[in-house]
Design goal:
Strand content: 35-45%
Order of helices and strands: EEHEEEHEHEHEEEE
Number of helices: 4
Structural class: alpha/beta
CATH class: Alpha Beta
Number of strands: 11
CATH superfamily: Restriction endonuclease-like alpha-beta roll domain
CATH architecture: Roll
Helix content: 25-40%
Number of domains: 1
Oligomer: single chain
Shape: globular
Strand order of the largest sheet: 3-4-5-6-7-11
Length: 186
């Protein structure tokens, strides 16, 4: 964790009917000084969508050698590499060479759309890459859920995501920009 990071605690109950995954997770999120609540909550959403006992937060913004989230097998090989935001094309190519599966979650409206347009031709060739985009209203709704101590409920069904905490709620329908041709087994 970065030394100047703000620490957030989240307890998240996940009911993922698409994957038949039903677990509770107690998470500690370190928010880098340059990170917004919106980005931190997109990281938390990415965790919920891929939740697994071996899925861990990387050092992310404080270490470019590690992804936002990753899952390794017992030998240390990287099964899943997850990035949030708009990583550069070189980073994505390197991740695809190191991991069995790479997922990117973009957000931010027009900036994310422009990033995709600029990188589409190169990224389309990466068989183990999936790219999803969160609509701007959804990522802003996620930011409203951010609290130093969070109790969250996450329901995933037929590709629709509902996240609730306290009085705030967010409904998310991801746009799949690119699907991997090498599916990752859960």
């Amino acid at each position: 964790m970065a030394s100047n990071a703000t620490i957030f605690k989240a307890t998240i109950q996940i009911a993922d009917m698409d994957r038949h995954y039903y677990e509770d997770h107690a998470l500690t999120l370190a928010r880098h000084p340059s990170e917004t609540d919106e980005r931190m909550m997109v990281r938390l959403l990415a965790f919920a969508l891929h939740a697994h006992e071996a899925l861990l937060f990387g050092r992310g913004l404080s270490n470019e050698e590690e992804p936002t989230l990753w899952q390794k097998d017992l030998t240390g090989a990287i099964d899943l590499w997850i990035e949030v935001g708009q990583p550069d094309e070189k980073t994505i190519r390197q991740a695809c060479g190191r991991a069995k599966q790479v997922c990117i979650y973009t957000y931010g409206g027009r900036g994310a759309d422009q990033w995709w347009e600029n990188n589409l031709a190169t990224l389309a060739r990466l068989n183990n890459l999936s790219v999803m985009n969160l609509p701007l209203d959804a990522s802003r709704a996620l930011a409203q859920l951010a609290q130093p101590s969070m109790q969250l409920l996450c329901t995933i069904q037929e590709g629709q995501i509902w996240l609730a905490g306290g009085e705030s709620r967010a409904h998310i329908a991801l746009t799949i920009l690119k699907s991997s041709s090498t599916p990752f087994g859960h």
